[in-house]
Known about the structure:
Helices cover 42% and strands 28% of the residues. By secondary structure, the chain is of the alpha+beta class. Strands 1-2-5 form a three-stranded antiparallel β-sheet. Strands 3-4 form a two-stranded antiparallel sheet. A hairpin with a 3-residue loop joins strand 1 and strand 2. Helix 1 (3-14) packs across helix 2. The longest helix has 20 residues, at 18-37. The protein is extended, with a radius of gyration of 20 Å.
Amino acid sequence: MTKADLINLISEKAGITRVKAETVVNTIFDSMVEALMRDDRIEIRGFGSFVNRQYGAYKGRNPRTGEIINVEEKKLPFFKVGKELKEDINNGPKKKEG
């Protein structure tokens, strides 16, 4: 599912224009990005949570040249699936083989 698919689905289900649905989706995504930039944890019950993980600095190697480089510390967003979503995915309708 793409962002455009999500916008179209919300537009249809909520009975609103595509422009309004796009505003809703963009507002949600922008709010999530801002929260992660503040190092806030995002928890959506039944779906999962987003949290930043901190990685320390280390020495890496350029695979092309073999040169040793310093990699600075960084934060990366991490998604942890919620129990209910995990159960739904594992117990949901099975796809037919072949």
